[in-house]
Design goal:
alpha/beta; 6-stranded mixed beta sheet; binds ligand T3D
């Protein structure tokens, strides 16, 4: 399927998704939100894809909702935007049992910031920034931000960031554990692609189950989490890659994982 507002390719088992509305800082209109959902579905179901990389075209990662679309009489209304655009995107990123890397190549504002934070491993170029822009236009943070951000940085910092809507640099985002790492701009894509390729060559089944366990750890108590680890470890132990990993270790050779 051809998309204009999203660029999508599969290279070395990595599904590379590029938000592609650079003239408006990759802000989301309906077309881009639905195309994003389609490519996330393709990444989920295509066994050739064993890791996903999300980034933006041009000087920004994503400036959140296209504000011109919401005031247009033909544009979708606010409730539909949240329910049909952002909620499915965040759920697809969180529930795909494959690692999702995000390379934040410039400003990430509003829904753009919270989608970046919903990814498993978020890298950002040193000149990138994060803005919980919602309060500045009289909205509340969406795209899972009120769930994700306090868990990453704690309730005090999340409250300040969300109420004030101030711009946070990539280095500060790293210091407060909002993202995994900030990287020199000219190295960002190279490092992000290498990281995604490395993950794509790893035991995808076990990584997917790890993600399931981490998702549940947000809401489970210790007893439930220990039960879940027992169940998922049993499942991982039946995989080809577990067998291969142990054999390769004992024979002192590199493992060749299939992702199964
Ligand atoms: O219905 C709903 O609204 C519910 C959903 C909510 C989810 C949300 O995401 S709400 C938050 C929406 N986003 C924002 O409020 C951010 C708006 N943008 C900005 O504050 C600034 O653009 C940035 C801080 C992100 C970047 O500033 P700067 O100075 O680097 O760039 P700029 O000059 O402001 O923007 C460049 C162009 O992109 C400009 O167009 P022009 O003048 O070249 O024709 C600007 O209008 C356009 N642009 C940037 N952000 C958006 C946008 N156009 C539409 N929507 C945007 N969000």
């Amino acid at each position: 399927m051809e998309y204009t507002s999203i660029k999508f390719s599969i290279e070395k088992n990595v599904g590379i998704i590029k938000l592609n509305r650079p003239d408006v800082l990759n802000s989301f209109n309906q077309d881009m939100a639905l195309a994003f959902q389609h490519v996330l579905d393709e990444c989920t179901h295509n066994p050739l894809v064993r890791a996903i990389l999300i980034t933006g075209e041009g000087r920004a990662f994503c400036a959140g909702q296209d504000l011109a679309e919401v005031i247009s009489s033909e544009g979708p209304e606010l409730q539909r935007i949240v329910k049909e655009h952002y909620n499915p995107i965040v759920l697809k990123i969180r529930t795909v049992e494959k690692p999702v890397v995000c390379a934040v190549n410039g400003v990430a504002a509003g829904a753009g910031a919270n989608i970046a934070l919903a990814c498993d491993i978020t890298l950002a170029g040193k000149s990138a920034s994060f803005i919980q822009a919602f309060s500045k236009i009289g909205l509340i943070p969406d795209s899972g931000g009120t769930f994700t951000l306090p868990r990453l940085v704690g309730i005090q910092k999340a409250s300040a960031l969300m109420m004030l809507g101030e711009k946070i640099s990539a280095s500060d985002a790293e210091k407060m554990n909002m993202i995994y790492k900030s990287i020199d701009d000219d190295q960002l894509m190279n490092e992000a692609v290498l990281l995604a390729q490395k993950l794509a060559a790893m035991p995808t089944k076990a990584i997917g189950l790890t993600k399931r366990a981490l998702n549940k750890s947000m809401i489970n108590n210790l007893n439930s989490q220990l039960d879940l680890e027992e169940e998922l470890q049993t499942e991982a132990g039946k995989s080809f890659d577990y067998n291969e990993g142990v054999k390769a270790f004992l024979k002192k050779r590199p493992p060749i994982f299939k992702g199964e």
